[in-house]
Design goal:
Number of strands of chain B: 10
Number of helices of chain B: 9
Radius of gyration of chain A: 23 Å
Shape of chain B: globular
Shape of chain A: elongated
Largest sheet of chain B: 6 strands, mixed
Structural class of chain B: alpha/beta
Strand content of chain B: 15-25%
Order of helices and strands of chain B: EEEHEEHEHHHEHEHEEHH
Strand order of the largest sheet of chain B: 6-7-8-3-9-10
Distance between the termini of chain A: 72 Å
Radius of gyration of chain B: 18 Å
Largest interface: A-B, 33 and 40 residues
Strand content of chain A: under 5%
Oligomer: heterodimer
Distance between the termini of chain B: 33 Å
């Protein structure tokens, strides 16, 4: 057997791939998506609190947010997942039994929150201070002004960065495998790895890689598309065609006027 | 408009760090009257305006509406009584013109959606922009944006209106429309404090003109007295440069 052919069969053995494919689709893909999307939602909720705390005038809010962000951004994701997944396992045992899955989501969420918090903070701070002043002058409290005027504007500007974070989460979700998942909880990477370990053939792992690419590559294009729309405004539409509260991504002043 | 109140500032001081911006400002605006505040850049005019609705808290002195100090009131409640219009309009760019106006009506004045929309449309109509209700602010000219900002403030039924160089950011051909609107408002008996570089407007519309320099009101009086018979040399020099 020539080496080239061996190499080919190591990665592109269709039989191995076909064998792994059903479990990839029915088990791996849903689990990867559940892990990533749930962590993105929890991470965003915590991230917005971190962002608001991070720009607070109160030192007792600003400081803990700062420390949290530094710690969770500074640690390798694998270390955090292992520390939380193993360290909190006894606690998790009491709450939901011997199930590492929720702890995996928790660890991913905590990591994501640190990054998403920074993204939100930069978005909020990119909104002109005069917007806050105008809202306060109308009688809005600081909190409500943030909620209805500042944060909605900030979030539109950081959508590309937020989707990037979702991409990172999809990839990082592969790390929860070492918490020891049940067969039905395995995500794409773990399933690929299991098949590869059993057969000594890497094709299933390569198939897992293709699944990741099928998720992440379209998302990067979504990022680029949002980014373009943010920069150039959306395609010109008659003002009368606007929905009262639609998701307009055009930057303020993009069409002139607010100079 | 008959709910207007009188406004008095008493010995208002305000510093940003070591920088003393207001050094004891006194100003009286009778109920329904219009006061124009003029003066060179950096004299504290805009800062003074912001102490009236407590976007900035004075370090010392008092702010009185109808003779009653507002410094111990809830600032958010005070700001519902005091409308403000900014140099840069500061409309909310992520909302339609209509929503810009109904937002505070619904959330602060607690009007129902239908009523808020009706009130907003009335005020848009009043500033001549009923047709632009569904447009985004960015699709409007500067003059139109400023008129929406005025409608937004008026919809809250304020008892005092503050204008912070409301026409300074406008193209020259758009200034007139906004000034005309402000003059109308003044004629209808709104109590107004107008920080402006439009000396023509001050002369014609104001009941009182106050000249500020370096954080104090150096001279105040009826427009004729201030413009034709200025006493203070600093004011005479300022007028010779702007007129």
């Amino acid at each position: 057997m020539d080496p080239l052919r061996t190499l080919w069969e190591t990665f592109f053995d269709w039989e191995s791939m076909r064998e792994a494919l059903p479990e990839m689709i029915t088990v791996g893909l849903p689990n990867t998506l559940i892990l990533a999307v749930t962590a993105a939602l929890f991470g965003s909720a915590l991230g917005i609190l971190l962002a608001v705390a991070g720009i607070s005038r109160t030192r007792w809010l600003r400081w803990p947010a700062r420390v949290y962000t530094d710690v969770f951004r500074g640690l390798p994701a694998a270390a955090t997942i292992l520390l939380i997944g193993v360290g909190l396992a006894p606690l998790g045992m009491q709450v939901w039994g011997p199930n590492p899955y929720p702890l995996g989501i928790l660890a991913l969420s905590l990591i994501a929150a640190a990054y998403i918090g920074e993204i939100f903070r930069s978005g909020i701070q990119s909104v002109e201070a005069t917007q806050l002043e105008a809202a306060r002058a109308l009688g809005f409290s600081w909190g409500e002004a943030m909620r209805v005027v500042i944060i909605p504007q900030g979030i539109r500007r950081i959508l590309p960065a937020w989707v990037n974070q979702l991409i990172a989460l999809i990839k990082d979700s592969s790390l929860v495998y070492f918490l020891g998942l049940l067969a039905s909880q395995r995500e794409l990477f773990r399933i690929g790895q299991d098949y590869a370990a059993n057969t000594g053939n890497q094709s299933a792992l390569l198939l897992a890689g293709l699944f990741y690419l099928a998720l992440t590559v379209p998302l990067t294009h979504v990022v680029n598309w949002i980014d373009r729309r943010l920069r150039h405004g959306r395609p010109a539409t008659g003002p009368a065609g606007d929905e009262p509260d639609d998701l307009d991504l055009a930057l303020p002043g993009a069409a002139g006027g607010n100079r | 408009m008959n709910t207007s109140v009188s406004l008095s500032l008493r010995d208002v001081h305000l510093a940003f760090g070591r920088n003393q911006v207001l050094r004891g400002v006194d100003l009286d605006v009778a109920r329904g009257a219009t006061a124009c505040v003029i003066g060179p850049s950096g004299s504290g005019k805009s800062t003074l305006l912001r102490t009236v609705n407590r976007l900035l808290e004075p370090d010392r002195g008092d702010v009185l509406l109808d003779g009653r100090s507002v410094l111990r009131d809830d600032p958010d409640a005070l700001r519902q009584r005091v409308g403000m219009v900014f140099q840069q309009f500061n409309l909310f760019p992520h909302m339609s013109v209509l929503r810009n106006i109904t937002l505070a009506l619904r959330r602060i004045r607690k009007l129902g959606e239908d009523e808020a929309v009706a009130v907003a449309r009335t005020h848009l109509d009043r500033v001549g922009l009923a047709a632009k209700a569904d447009a985004r602010p960015a699709h409007l000219s500067g003059g139109q944006q400023q008129r929406v900002a005025i409608a937004r403030a008026l919809a809250m039924q304020p008892q005092v209106m503050l204008f912070d160089e409301a026409t300074s950011a406008l193209d020259p051909e758009l200034v007139k429309g906004v000034l005309a609107l402000m003059a109308d408002l003044s004629a209808q008996g709104m109590t107004m404090v107008v920080v402006t570089h439009e000396m023509g407007f001050a002369r014609e519309v104001a009941d009182t003109v106050a000249f500020m320099d370096a954080g104090v009101v150096l001279e105040a009086g009826e427009p004729a007295a201030v413009f034709e018979a200025a006493q203070h040399p600093r004011l005479r020099r300022f007028l010779s440069q702007v007129l």
